[in-house]
């Protein structure tokens, strides 16, 4: 169990749904604030940003190492610097975004990508920090974020078991006492077939942390399946409309989809229940209407039991249907009207 901004997050609570803005503001503060409004209206619990500048995450260089591969589905051939220039959220926007989110009941926080981002977010009193998948190997950054005393969420896309262990150890050594670890496939968009959600219980066992999913697949299916496997946090990108385009639009939810995720993830969590088999309390009334053996026409004492005067019908109250073979041919001990449950003392 961890707690972020007074909200408990764990297996005995509904999933904590995080709306990730990323670059879906498309360079407009007005649109960014509209995404905040949409996240709140959809019932999300948190709004997450990414805090970097192009110059704090890369350099303005060219060459194969500084370009996305030509085959990338969304950003093929684009220079890293230009991509981050388009996608970054200006730092001067953070305060109005945080203020709007808090006013609407959302928990605003961010992913810092270097020490200056942590310092900046501390001034905004960010209640938690998220370490992005590509930064899971930046152990000094993890230790710095952990040293703030805030809850830490680490995304594990692309990471090996050894790298995850090192990141968790760095967080703990840095002073983190409230840690969540997210399964993630760091491709954009991600294929559901590569989600490997059955690894969630393994991730929980490996890290001893609350687990969740940072999901870049289309739709809601993977996120809801993750709940069944123990995910306590769900992070999905949010845009006001995919048709508007933008760096993340193709793998982002629209507001109505996010609202459905909030509702259905809680239903999925509720449906997990307990590891018990047997009638539920709500089924008590239904038990009255199981099939049993009943007299279905007027009979007289001494008359034989046949398939015409006794049948398996609803409701319960008579002998079980399986007893039919044992009672056929016996004789009634007394008169009985239609609708009389067949009991052993009647034959």
In words, what does this structure look like?
This protein has 347 residues and is α/β, with parallel strands linked by helices. It contains twelve helices and twelve strands. β8, α8 (200-207) and β9 form a beta-alpha-beta unit. The chain is elongated, with a radius of gyration of 30 Å. The mean pLDDT is 95. Residues 292-347 form the AFP-like domain. This is Pseudaminic acid synthase. It comes from Nonomuraea cavernae.
Secondary-structure map:
Elements: E1 2-4, E2 7-9, E3 16-20, H1 29-42, E4 46-51, H2 54-57, H3 80-87, H4 91-103, E5 107-112, H5 115-123, E6 129-131, H6 139-146, E7 152-155, H7 161-173, E8 179-184, H8 200-207, E9 210-214, H9 221-228, E10 233-237, H10 255-272, H11 284-287, E11 292-295, E12 310-313, H12 324-327
Parallel strand pairs: 3-4, 3-10, 4-5, 6-7, 7-8, 8-9, 9-10
Antiparallel strand pairs: 1-2, 11-12
CATH first level of the largest domain: which class?
Alpha Beta
Strand elements, count? 12
User: What's the CATH superfamily of the largest domain, by name?
Assistant: Aldolase class I
Strand content: 15-25%
Q: What number of domains?
A: 2
- Number of helix segments? 12
CATH topology of the largest domain: TIM Barrel
Radius of gyration: 30 Å
Instruction: Provide the succession of SSEs.
Output: EEEHEHHHEHEHEHEHEHEHHEEH
Strand order of the biggest β-sheet: 5-4-3-10-9-8-7-6
Mean pLDDT: 95
Report the sheet with the most strands, covering strand number, pairing sense and barrel closure.
8 strands, parallel
* Known CATH architecture of the largest domain: Alpha-Beta Barrel
Q: Structural class per helix/strand content?
A: alpha/beta
Helix content: 25-40%
Distance between the amino and carboxyl termini:
61 Å
CA-based shape: elongated
Which spans of ≥5 residues are poorly predicted at pLDDT below 50?
none
């Amino acid at each position: 169990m961890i707690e972020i901004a007074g909200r408990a997050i764990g297996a005995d609570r509904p999933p904590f749904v995080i709306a990730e803005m990323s670059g879906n503001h498309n360079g407009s503060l007005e649109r960014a604030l509209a995404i905040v409004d949409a996240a709140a209206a959809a019932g999300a619990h948190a709004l997450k940003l990414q805090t970097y500048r192009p110059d704090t995450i890369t350099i303005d260089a060219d060459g194969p190492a500084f370009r996305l591969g030509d085959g990338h589905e969304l950003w093929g051939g684009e220079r890293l610097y230009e991509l981050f220039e388009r996608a970054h959220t200006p730092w001067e926007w953070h305060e109005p975004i945080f203020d709007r989110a808090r006013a609407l009941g959302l928990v605003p926080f961010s992913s810092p990508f270097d020490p200056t981002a942590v310092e900046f977010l501390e001034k905004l009193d960010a209640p938690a920090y998220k370490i992005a998948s590509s930064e899971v190997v930046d152990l000094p950054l993890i230790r710095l974020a952990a040293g703030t005393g805030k809850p830490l969420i680490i995304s594990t896309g692309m990471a090996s078991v050894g790298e995850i262990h090192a990141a968790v150890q760095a967080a703990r050594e840095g002073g983190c006492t409230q840690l969540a670890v997210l399964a993630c496939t760091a491709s954009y968009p991600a294929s559901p077939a590569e989600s490997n959600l059955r690894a969630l219980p393994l991730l929980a066992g490996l890290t001893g942390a609350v687990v969740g999913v940072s999901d870049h697949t289309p739709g809601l299916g993977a996120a809801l399946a993750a709940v069944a496997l123990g995910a306590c946090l769900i992070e999905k990108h949010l845009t006001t409309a995919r048709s508007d385009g933008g760096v993340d639009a193709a793998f982002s939810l629209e507001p109505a989809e996010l609202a459905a995720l909030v509702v259905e993830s809680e239903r999925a969590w509720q449906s997990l229940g307990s590891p018990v088999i047997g009638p539920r309390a709500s089924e008590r009334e239904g038990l009255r209407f199981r099939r049993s053996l009943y007299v279905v026409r007027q009979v007289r004492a001494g008359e034989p039991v046949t398939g015409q005067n006794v049948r398996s019908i609803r409701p319960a109250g008579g002998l079980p249907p399986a007893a039919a073979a044992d009672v056929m041919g016996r004789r009634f001990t007394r008169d009985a009207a239609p609708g009389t449950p067949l009991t052993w003392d009647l034959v």
